[in-house]
Design brief:
alpha/beta; Rossmann fold; 6-stranded mixed β-sheet; globular; binds adenosine-5'-triphosphate
């Protein structure tokens, strides 16, 4: 059984003159352990698809199944629980909370998941160590470089032991050296069994993937 499956997914934004067909009947199936890169020109619907597969957004039409469970019937609260239990997200803009230290940012998903404080601290420290930031755990985001912030975001994404990491242009704001560190980390996580679904328009990054899905005008044009 596929880990994630999208069937005939449509996403239509706006109405009337401003109507945008962002996704036009996407069929996609991703198995556990894959590292999938979603590529295609700007505006073709990559982020929209990633957000729908990650249950951050809902399709206008069509179904998303996670491990065979139909998610489109869930309410927002059920989707939030599902996201927290099985997914981690990494974005181009990092989306760290500025008023929290690196350690507190990584602890946050565990607070939402009602883990006790001692466990949270210990795990957050371990994860920050794993991404090479043992010396920076009490730093605030604005005291860290872009690459370091993205590594905090990766540690945060790992907090609740996700099965899947959704990454939207994870190196889009990084120089090539920091970008490589982030990509090597993602690869390492994939080798440990975490499924990775990444949006990118960088051909070099797509080389890290085991499969490349190309999109154009809201449709998938090739599954390599
Ligand atoms: N909230 C929204 N409201 C209206 N239109 C939207 C919204 N989000 C995206 N769109 C439109 O949907 C289409 C697909 O956008 P999307 O961000 O998914 O593309 P993308 O391939 O990720 O682009 P990029 O590579 O530039 O990030 C675009 O035409 C975009 O303008």
């Amino acid at each position: 059984m596929a880990l994630i499956e999208g069937r005939n997914i449509w996403k239509i934004y706006g109405s009337g003159e401003a109507k945008t067909y962002a996704l036009r009947g996407i069929d996609i199936s991703i198995n556990e352990g894959e590292f999938v890169a979603i590529m295609g020109p700007s505006g073709c619907g990559k982020s929209t698809l990633l957000n729908i597969l990650g249950l951050l957004d809902v399709p206008t039409r069509g179904e998303v199944y996670i491990k065979g469970k139909k998610t489109t019937l869930m309410n927002e609260n059920e989707r939030a629980i599902f996201r927290r239990k099985i997914s981690g997200f990494i974005f181009q803009q990092f989306h760290l909370i500025k008023t929290l230290t690196a350690l507190e940012n990584v602890e946050l998903p565990m607070i939402l998941d009602e883990k006790d404080k001692k466990y949270r601290r210990k795990r957050a420290k371990k994860l920050l160590e794993m991404v090479g930031l043992a010396e920076r755990i009490y730093h605030y985001p604005n005291q860290l470089s872009g690459g370091q912030q993205q590594r905090v975001a990766i540690a945060r994404a790992l907090a609740n032991n996700p099965k899947i990491i959704f990454a939207d242009e994870p190196t889009g704001n990084l120089d090539s050296k920091s970008g490589k560190i982030v990509m090597d980390l993602l690869k390492e996580l994939n080798e440990k069994g975490i499924t990775i679904i990444m949006v990118t328009h960088d051909k070099d990054l797509a080389k890290y993937a085991s499969r490349i899905i190309k999109m154009k005008d809201g449709k998938i044009v090739s599954y390599e």
